[in-house]
Amino acid sequence: MSQQMTTSEMTTSEMTTSEMTTSEMTTGVVATPSTVSIAAVSRLTDRVAGSGIDADRLQLLNLAHDARDLGVSSVLIDVMVDEQAPIVARLRAYGRVSARACALAPAGRSGVQHGVLVSA
């Protein structure tokens, strides 16, 4: 009996291009599902405002993965993580993605975000 792996359990070498996001193809990192935390997005926004869109690349990719799971526009997400896109476009996409992800996140729930306990 064969056991299927979920996307979060696969490495990029085991995934086809159609199963991978742009960020997974460029970084080789496959993010694991998590819960969006408004507090975590707020902290990331502070870092982005102070040091630029790539101030915390890992958290940016985590937000991209979570937002994609929530159904946020793939086009916006791809622009947000595309290092070749103009900074202004990436920042605008970040604003839209983060706002939409927070709006779609379950309200008043605690969860585990990438191994760290968070609360909304």
Report the sheet-strand fraction: 5-15%
So what's the overall shape?
globular
Would you report the number of β strands? 2
Poorly predicted regions are 1-18, 29-33, 109-120
Helix percent band: 40-55%
Secondary-structure-based class equals: mainly alpha
Question: What's the gyration radius in Å?
Answer: 14 Å
What can you tell me about this protein's structure?
With 120 residues, the chain is mainly alpha-helical. Helices cover 50% and strands 7% of the residues. Strands 1-2 form a two-stranded antiparallel sheet. A hairpin with a 2-residue loop joins strand 1 and strand 2. Helix 3 packs antiparallel against helix 4 and helix 3 packs across helix 5. The protein starts with 21 loop residues before the first helix and ends with a strand. The N terminus and C terminus are likely disordered.
